Structures are given as structure tokens and as C-alpha cells.
């Protein structure tokens, strides 16, 4: 078949101690979206890195338009027309959109000077291919654009390289719903233009919306292939090897919800206004809203990182305004940050050290690192076991673990402190389906044990599925509250209502 | 939930050749080279004198590695040594009995300077490289002012005891320098604090990721100030030893801070923080001293020593980067 742009056959790749891929075959045709799905560690990234020349396969071959190719560097694959868009963008934040698009191959004018006019015009031309791209100014400094727009620039860069194969690695991870829709439209447009698109994702909705074909990887092997967008349950079944009827944990029963543990009245600071909030023992409160609505600011205020300047917090009956995370933790609040790597983990330290970090922080500096007031090594190991963390050893550096396992290690850290209120920011971002279900059930378990849970998530179905009560924020205020059974439309409407009026 | 069968709970991650800190084979090779050129080195007189000479640097490196692991540099160590030596000669004023109170005062000065360094970094938000460069210049000036530019040439023997004296009639090795005993005690204590206490783990954590450490409740400022205080304390102890065998001058400590940083890095400490080992910093200090000893044997002039030290610093960091890349960590 000549319309197969990429064919990978019998790809096998072994790392020391791990067989990452065994005999994987995979192909993509021009003008289709091939979804590549699988849990973390299933081998998706390794496969892509072999395709783009970051790694070399131990066995098997890669064919580009029927010809066998051996890329030894990503630059070679890019020249051959394969562009990979990673979650971490490769854009230079201090340069303009146009400069980024033509980095290293700027059009030259007279005297060898860079022809900025032409560069700008050609950038314009590429951007205008896309609805959202039409709104981007080629002279804007990339660092000043939001994540979704930066991603658009990254895609435009791939297009300007005349890439015939575009790989997108979880492109919606940092996008809100509206931005996702724009991305989907962009992907549609790329498909119409005849690009072959490899789309890596965890999200069923995106597969249903976009995929022409689906390849499921599990443990380094192809677990299933589907033509057309199949039933989500079938994909999940292939990914995890079991059904997930119980994906979300059951809601709290009335008798499980107890007294208020956390009450905020009239809370405010530079980014928050008039915050009145009650979290009860045993319930999961979801915070929803668009990016910048103040959800994370509220979490950081509760946690003392960006404290309230007005109003007061009552935690378990005691009034307080936390001036630092340390004060908040001492009072019984815990927080799982949204960006694990930059805010949650000490990456060079072991899994166990990451778990022990907070117990140690609340012990004497000079006492043994193996035994602290809140927890000793044995208890942390028990908690890590309870989280079912997959690691060769708890002495292993945590950076080697998958996102889901890293997240669980942070949860274990907080469990050791027995917090009264635990705040989860984007708890399932970048982690696989199975681990997601684990996090939902864990939140429910913690609530049943008497904690109040606050969950912030940009994934609306997740908030609806996991929370007992949903608060919607907009411009630093809480503007609506929903119980169980709210629809996505209701919530989106509340999150954007006034803005529509204003506009 | 039940325990996962895939999660093992062994004590350590296991031993492999790649896991050995390269400073140890390096040190072994250097010692072999020295013994080859000078068989007398294998006698107690040879290696005990070597250890005696290496003791101040080793102690200094053991303190410096706290600051490096926490993500900073302490450039003030060398001038703190000078201040301690000059200050001790001024305060003792040839009175042998004064040693008893002058030494605690010097240790307190060391801790105090460290606390000031830490406070400047934590509360005034001055990067440690600049902050300690400032204290380095300030302390040099203070030492000069204190002595009036002409330090008295001697310290009482009671003070010089720690740096100079030997304890004789020790079985097996015939004699042990007092400074080697100080070395073992101080480095032992610093190794314990770094690798067996909450402090040590938190020093690693704040050097690794200060934001995550703060959000985990780590008292980042307290830990950072403590790291600088231990670095200052180690400089004061090194100064007391150096005063014993090097005598009094206003440049006795010059350049020691860079030697200490080189030694720590040679021991695999990660510049900008997150990784560091006191025993390996000791190994680095011994290896650096061994290199200087070899250069001496070879009859190379003093400036060569500086050239070599600079190259070692670059090579050690380059090697560390290469290993990190290769192991993918």
C-alpha cells in the first residue's frame, strides 16, 4: 500500500532490565488520525522516540513512504518530514512566533540579512491555515502566549517544516475544554490537508472525537487494533485488561458526610474575592472553572502559599490565617500540587525520601531520618505499599517512576500526616486510566476515613464523576454550586456566563 | 487495598561497579602513584603526615558539601579561616591559658558568619555566590583591620596543639597527629548529620527542588541557614588546625574555599544542589591533596597547582554530567 506514510515493523527495544517494546508493528496513512493509546510505561513514548531517531531499535525497521530509513537524530527525522510535538514545547520563549517558526532557516534577503518581512508573511500564511492560528500575531513573543496558543505555534512550526507526519504526545494535557475544541479543529484541518497524524492520548473522548484508527499498546506489545473509533469500553478493556464499570468511586452517602472541617468566610487577596466555602468531613468538593478563574489561587490561599489578606479560615473549629504552607500543614491541611515535577517531587531523591519529606519536615532536624514524629520508615513503606506503587525498590530515584506512581508517592507523603483537609490539584493529569481510577477510589477512601477533600480539575467529566459537590469559580469568585448529577453544559455555562454577557 | 506484589521492599538498591563513586578508585590510583615514587609513604610517618596536611581541607570540604548540596556555594570559608587564625593570635596575645576560651569564641564566630551568610541568602534573597563573595571580602578586610596589617607571628603552644602535635606510642601506627583525630571526629559527625538525620535529607531536598520542599512543609530557611552555619563551623575548625601548623598571616586561608568546592565536586556533589556526600567529599579532599603531593614530587612549581586545580574542577563536573546522561538520571 503506497498510502502508508509510516510503517514500523517488528520493532523491539530493550533497555537495561526492561523490554520496552517487543515485535511492535504500526502504520499510519496519509490523511488519517491514528490514535496510540496505552497506560504509562506501555511503550508509546519509546515507539515515538524510535520513529523520530531519539532511540535506535534493537530489531525491526522503520519505513517512510516505502523506503527503509535509519534516523540517528531527531533533526534528521524532522528533515524527512516527521514532526513530534511533545508536551514540553521546544519553542524559545523570548523569541517571536515568526522567529520560532523559522529558527535556524530564516529566509535571507539582500546581503544575507534576515528578510523579516518575508518571514512574517510566511508565518502569517501558515497560521492562517487554522482558525485559531488566524488570531496569532507573528510578532508576539512566544512566552507571552497561553499554553494552547503556544501549542498552536508548535503545530504551525511542524506545518511550516512541511511535515507529512505529525506526532502529538498528549496534546490536551494542559488545555481546558474550549481550548481542546480548538485543537481538535486544528487536527481536523491537518487531516484534510493530508497529513498523517499519530495522536497519543489517555482520554476516551478524544479518541472518539478524532481517531480513524486506534492502536492499543500494553506492556510493550500491541494489545488491540481498531478501525474507526471503537467503543471506549473496548479500548479501556484492551489497555488495562479488565472492565472498569467502577471507574469513579461511588458518591458519599448522606450519613458519611459529617461536620464542617474547613470554613472560609469573606476570603480575599489579590486574585480572590468574597470566598465563602465550607468543606465537610467525608465529602469531595470539586472546584471547576476555566484557566485563571482562581481555582489554584484558592487552593494556594487555603494552603498558605499565597495567603488570604482578608477574611478568615476556620479549621476544625480553630480560627487561623495560614501565612505559609508549613503553618497550614501543621494545622492539618495537605496539598497535592498540579505540577508534580516542579512543585511536588524532589526528583533526585528516593521514592521513600519523597514519601518521608513532610514527616521529616515536622521532626527535629537532628533526629534520625528513619524515625520521625509522624511516621517511621516502616509506616511510609506500608503507605507506599497501600498505594501499590510500582518501583524496583523504594530506594530508587523517584524520577524513574511513571507519573501515576510519582503521584501516589506524594499521596503517601500526605497520608502519613493524617490531614483533615486534602487538596488535590489536577490529580490525574498525565497519568493512565488505571491509575486514574485508583486516585478516584483513594480520594473516596480518604473521605470515608473522615477527611474533607477538595479537588481541582480541568477535566469536567472527572469533576462530575468524582465530586459530591461542585463549586464553579470565575474571576476569583465562587459563582455557582452544583450537587451530584450536574451536566457539563450547566457547569460550563456557569463558568463562562458573565463573561458572555460582558462580551 | 492490599500490598502490591510488584513492589519490593529491599534495604538498598544493590551494588554495581557503576554505583561506586569514582573518587575512590581515583584516590587509590593516586596513593599507588605516591607509594611508587616514594615508598616511605606506606610507613606511618608518610601517610600520617599526609593525613595531617589534608585534615583542614577535608574538614572544610565536609562543611562545604552541605552548602553545595543545599543548592549554594560558600566562598567565605577561606577568609573565615584567615579571620580565625588572625583573631586567635590577637585574642590569645601569647597567653597559653587563653586558648581555653579563644577556641569556643572562634567556633562561635564560625557559626555566626555562617548564620549571617544564610540570612543574607534566605531573607535578602541574594544568590549565595554573591552573598558569600561579599562576606569573603568583608572578612578579609576585618582580619586585616583586626591585626592592624601586621599580625603577631605566633600562637601559644596550647593553641597550636591541635594542628601540630602528635600523640605517640599508639599501637600499630606508632603515632597519630591530633589533627587526624579532629578530622575523624568532625567528618564523622558531619557525615552522620548529612546521611543519618532529618537535617541531611532536607538539605538534599531543598537543593533538589526548593519549591517542592516548601510545599511539603520543609522549613527551607532554617535548613539553609543551618547548612551555612555548619560550613562556617567547619571553616573555624580548619582555621584552628591551620593556625597550629601554618602560623599566622593574613593570607593563610586564601584559596581554600575553592579547594573545598573542588574537593566536594570531585566527590560527586551536584553543583546547584540535590546530591552530595560527606564521605565522598573527604575522598575528594584526600585525592586533591594527593594530586598536590604528586606535583610536589615531580618538582612542578606552585602556579601549576592552580592550573591543575582548575582543570580538575572542570573535569569533575564534566564527568558527573556525562555519568548522569549515560545513566539517564
TrEMBL record, chain A:
Major subcellular location class: membrane
Gene Ontology CC terms: plasma membrane
SMART domains referenced in this protein's UniProt entry, alphabetically: AAA
Keyword annotations from UniProtKB, A to Z: ATP-binding, Cell membrane, Membrane, Nucleotide-binding, Repeat, Sugar transport, Translocase, Transport
InterPro entries in UniProt: AAA+_ATPase (IPR003593), ABC_carbohydrate_import_ATPase (IPR050107), ABC_transporter-like_ATP-bd (IPR003439), ABC_transporter-like_CS (IPR017871), P-loop_NTPase (IPR027417)
Compartments it resides in: Cell membrane
Annotated ranges, domain ABC transporter: 6-244, 252-500
Topology versus the membrane: Peripheral membrane protein
Name of the protein in question: Ribose transport system ATP-binding protein
Lineage: Bacteria, Pseudomonadati, Pseudomonadota, Alphaproteobacteria, Rhodobacterales
From TrEMBL, chain B:
Subcellular localization, as worded in the UniProt entry: Cell membrane
UniProt keyword list: Cell inner membrane, Cell membrane, Membrane, Transmembrane, Transmembrane helix, Transport
Membrane topology, from the record: Multi-pass membrane protein
Chief location category: membrane
Transmembrane segments: 23-42, 54-73, 98-124, 136-155, 175-194, 227-248, 280-298
MF terms (GO), sorted A to Z: transmembrane transporter activity
GO cellular component, one term: plasma membrane
Pfam families: BPD_transp_2 (PF02653)
Subunit structure of this chain's protein: The complex is composed of two ATP-binding proteins (LsrA), two transmembrane proteins (LsrC and LsrD) and a solute-binding protein (LsrB).
Function (record text): Part of the ABC transporter complex LsrABCD involved in autoinducer 2 (AI-2) import. Probably responsible for the translocation of the substrate across the membrane.
The protein's name in its UniProt record: Autoinducer 2 import system permease protein LsrD
Organism of this sequence: Palleronia aestuarii
